[in-house]
Amino acid sequence: MSYVDPGLRRRFQNASTTLSIILVIFAVMILLGWATHLPFLTRLSEEYVSAKPNTAVGLLLAGLAAILYRFLGNRIPMLVVAGLMLALGLATLLQDVVSIDFGIDELLFSDTADAVDTGAAGRMSPLASTAFAILGASYLVMPHAAKLGQILSAISGFVGYFAFTGYLFGISRVFRIEAVTAMSAHAAVGLLLVAPAHWFARPEHGFARSFIQGVASGRIIRRLIPAAICVPLLCGGLVQLGEQMEWFSSRFGETLVTLYTAVAFTGLGFWLVRVLERQQDERRGYERSLGRTGRALDRKKRELEQFAFTVSHDLKSPLVSVRGFIGLMLKDIKDGDYAAAEDSATEVSAAAAEMNDIIDGILAYSRVGRIEEEAQDVDVVELVDAIVELHEGRRAEHEIDVVIDRTMPNVNGFKTSLRRALENLYVNALRYAAKSDKPRIEIGGFSIDDKCQYYVRDNGPGIAPEYHDKVFELFQRLDVTEPGTGLGLASVAKIAELHQGRAYVESKPGHGATFILEVARNGAELRD
Prior knowledge:
about 10% strand
């Protein structure tokens, strides 16, 4: 099971949205250039082909598709935009193949057939039309084959990469085919952005998932792929500049390319080795912490110890208080001091209530997994809405901003238990978010293979790393001034185990906390 870092997922999604917005702005600028007859907005220079209006439309659709895919998933609006992109690419490509003009090239603006490197008036390059057709198809197949969809979008991106390389090194054969329109520099740059915008809109699926893993493999690929794409371009660009400035000969430039590449990948190799060494050190530390008994046995042992401690201390303390205040109350009654006796009675009631809360918490914890409950399809968004509505008064009291991701996947599991777990996490977030100047809670989730991960994030004071595991233990309360029994998060961990998953927290002091509930996506075999 791959470990996906929710923080990395969010950052990559934000990067995808940023790239998508850039694509949209880029496309609008090209169209604005045509509308205002400003050539510097449509072409690199007078000797290069201009970006055609339909090219701008394709880039606009590509940016919109990525944004819709992130926020709406595989729903009708995204599929419609992807279908339009596919149709635009195929129709334009067909015109070049069969030499028939469908009249789509100059629907927006007029162009001339004798324009630089233009095969037909207003027509985009067949390279660009092919890339848009492939990209549109990639979005349409994503619901059924995520990896295939990402391969197709990567092909579109590499078309732009190759054309961009041709412009960088002055090799026109890369972006120009005789007798048809050449690919513009604008199209090359735009297509260069489409693959990452598509991949990282929902990076938990397909090959993109490797980039958001919090383990060594994720750290390696996040640096290896950008290096493999950028280092050759950087080295080649520097050599090209040196040759143009006549600092050295082309023969010497070829030697420099070899040297640059060797140095870059040698450094990358050392970095990869260091990452693997750190991963091995972490694994050895983890194995030492578990010991021979294993993580599960160690947890059960701590639970038994905590139960014994509770019975001997937590339950005994209220009883001692009750006995003491009853003695005082009897004395006060005997002395006729009924006001003092009333105060003692109040303290007795408070101690009894505390003991009752502890007993109720123990009973609720012990019932997790023992109550016969059928696994069913659970609408998690609906469940979260009900929880938030139930605690609306407390949220409103502290003016806490609650953001719910409505693309959370459904899960097949025990509805009552899942509600209890999510409610415990939400109530915990309310308690600590209220301590922030601008309290905020985010609730979301996503699916990875056969698991679903749901998170509740607050911007409260945060938790030190040494307490990340401890907070899920029985009767552990980091802040004794806050009300509670220390059983809420322990119940969450037990419910996660019941659903063949786990519960964990990501937090740093002063940076809030993100609690993650990971459960099996299909609970049909949870009782087996």
